[in-house]
Design a protein that fits this description.
alpha+beta; about 80 residues
Length: about 80
């Protein structure tokens, strides 16, 4: 599935739907955190209007989701 063009705000909204919590902000970057089964996932999201494909791929890796799960989370 092709990666959608999304903003940092859309990514944060999607991740908070699946139990990620905003835990910090440094300049234009927001840090989200999720604890699941003894593992901690930390995701850094830049607050840009349009995220680059490489940045979005990195966010997907950090979140521990598959590409399809991530897209469903953002679009759903």
């Amino acid at each position: 599935m092709k990666l959608p063009v999304v903003s940092g705000t859309e990514v944060i909204k999607g991740l908070t739907k699946i139990s990620f919590e905003v835990v910090g902000r440094s300049g234009s970057h927001v840090r989200l955190k999720k604890k699941l089964n003894g593992k901690v996932w930390i995701v850094i999201v830049p607050m840009h209007r349009e995220l680059a494909k490489g940045t979005l791929s990195s966010i997907i890796r950090q979140s521990g989701l598959t590409r399809d799960e991530f897209i469903k989370t953002i679009k759903g």
